[in-house]
Amino acid sequence: MSNRFIAIEGIARRFPSRGGEPVTIFENLSLSIARGEFVCIIGHSGCGKSTVLNVLAGLDQPDAGFVFIDEKQITGPGLDRAVIFQSHALLPWKTALGNVAYAVSSRWPSLPRAEVLERAQRAIDLVGLHGAEMKRPAELSGGMRQRVGIARALSIEPKILLMDEPFSALDALTRGALQDEVRRICRDTGQTLFMITHDVDEAMYLADKIVLMTNGPGAMIAEIVENPLPQDRKRDEIHRHPDYYPLRNHLIDFLVTRSVTFKNEIPVGYDRSKPPVVRPVAKQPALA
Amino acid sequence: MSNAAPLSLRAGVLSLLIFVIFALAWHLGTRGGPSGPAMDPEYAKLMGATATQGKSAMPGPLEVGAKLVEHLRHPFYDRGPNDKGLGVQLAFSMLRVAAGYGLAVLVAIPLGFLIGMSPLMNKALDPFIQVMKPVSPLAWMPLALYTIKDSGLSAIFVIFICSLWPMLVNTAFGVSGVRKEWLNVARTLEVGPWRRAFTVILPAAAPTIFTGMRISIGIAWLVIVAAEMLVGGTGIGYFVWNEWNNLSITNVIIAILLIGLVGMLLDQLLARAARAVTFPE
Ligand SMILES: Nc1ncnc2c1ncn2[C@@H]1O[C@H](COP(=O)(O)OP(=O)(O)OP(=O)(O)O)[C@@H](O)[C@H]1O
Ligand SMILES: [Mg+2]
Q1: Cβ contacts (< 8 Å) between A107 and chain B: which residues?
Q2: pTM to 2 decimal places
Q3: Is A264 in the pocket of ligand 1 (CB under 6 A)?
Q4: Which residue from A150, B42, B54, B210 has the fewest beta carbons nearer than 10 Å?
């Protein structure tokens, strides 16, 4: 199995600013993701996480560098990648079911209408929206809209799911249920997931690897944190695991201080094209 | 909600009251009417028969009402070029509007789509549109008569020209303003250009397009009356001009009333269509 299923190689993105000099959001950014891996990226607001995701989705072109998926360079968006947008991006003139059905019929153009609707309905049921399928986005709550967006992405059975803060507008209970659902789907279908989140606990529960991004402009990937928690972790038990607090403290530590200071005290041997991989674990107690 | 019904009821009663007062004032103001000033027989001969029968004075509401009932009884008779039922005349006008307006829809919406999709076309065609838009459609009439050489077709052309601009501008505006995130949805789903045009851009721009269509139908209905006065022959505009020449103010008033009613109907029709395609965000 290739551990470079998704390979981001030295991408840069600059936006024109009013002053004239373009602002470099990030440059020479590299990251690879293995097939079936669940990767979360955390970093402060405005550091460029959505920009990275848009480049991966093919919606935005990097100003330098390349992105390869399965050895092929991407040139635009594709049905192999489904995007859950930060702004849910539902078509307001279609019902919840209509929005999902639109994706299904785009994915399988020759599928009979009845089967399109059946698949769409299944996706709607999966995110717990049974009964609300005939409502238009304007008649749904923020969390319900986000769930329609999730259903739409899941319905096309993509190889890669790109999620931009998909659970941020949900209450704790729904969020937990959907996290479990996404985790189950990911493990059952071998899907590769790339997810942006602000929630450290969410990242710890879901991700195999957590990418730490420093503040922009000129954001960098400071390091890649391997999740030391067991694969079969349970939501209500992980906090008892000895590695739980070392991991959590490492992540919080990064968000609170190192995301700002990293730029000024770059560790020796740091290589942008190959960010260091760390694995925070409990220190072995000294033998008495 | 409990306040809505009484309000519309009160408004209805008030409307009725205003109408009654208006009709009453009109009636009182024209009561002494029928026996007009004595006419010079030479002038009377010049003006034709109707003018000598006392119709030159301002008619009262009862007279207009009676004439209206008479018109409504036989709306579709046709007794030669100068004597057709009001229904026939209105039908001629509506057919011209339908032809000119329909042609304008066929041209403006696809063209507006192209302009809206391409920032280059948008910028390149903008000066032409800005110059052509404020030209009174009637100014085109001589040019149309000279090139087309058919008065009926010229009227249709004038309707076409005046309906074109609002629809063109609105379609281009609606299409260029489609939200990026909706287009991105189509892109990530690899939706082809035609399907994207019909399933994303058209529904997203439809409310704006219909607003343009509504403005256009209003202008077209305003212009047809003037155009038919110029080209003559048939239509409600010609009818008004003809009745003015006959000095039948009663018929002119009735025509004004009907022009207003038909215009309102057309406007309501498009307003309803616009509401059907509008989506809440
Ligand atoms: N189209 C654009 N034009 C100019 N600047 C942009 C554009 N899009 C994004 N930016 C800038 O790029 C930076 C990164 O934006 P991005 O949306 O990727 O942030 P983010 O990490 O996703 O933040 P958040 O967590 O708040 O969603 C921001 O400073 C933003 O102002
Ligand atoms: Mg973002």
Answers
A1: 189
A2: 0.84
A3: no
A4: B42
Query: Does the pLDDT value for residue A232 go beyond 80?
Result: yes
Whole-number average pLDDT of chain A: 91
Tell me the C-alpha distance between A66 and A77, whole Å.
14
> What backbone phi and psi angles, to 5 degrees, belong to A262?
-50, -45
Which of B226, B11, B235, B216 lies closest to B106, judged by CA? B216
Is A47 a pocket residue for ligand 1 (Cβ < 6 Å)? Answer: yes
pLDDT tens, A86-118? 888 999 999 999 999 999 999 999 999 999 999
Domain ranges in chain B are 1-30, 86-277
Nearest CA in chain A to B202: A93
Of the candidates A57, A91, A138, the beta carbon closest to that of B188 is on A57
Distance, in Å, from the CA atom of A140 to the CA atom of A131, rounded to the nearest integer, reads 12
Q: Residue B49 above 60 pLDDT? A: no
Of A82, A92, A106, the CB nearest to B279: A92
Which residue do the tokens 């030209």 mark? B135
Three-class secondary structure of residue B245 per DSSP: helix
Count the Cβ atoms, other than its own, within 10 Å of residue B78.
9
Give, for ligand 1, the residue of A41, A42, A47 to mutate: max count of ligand atoms closer than 8 Å to Cβ.
A47
Q: Does the domain at residues B86-277 carry the CATH identifier 3.40.50.1460?
A: no
Q: Whose CA is nearest to atom 18 of ligand 1?
A: A48
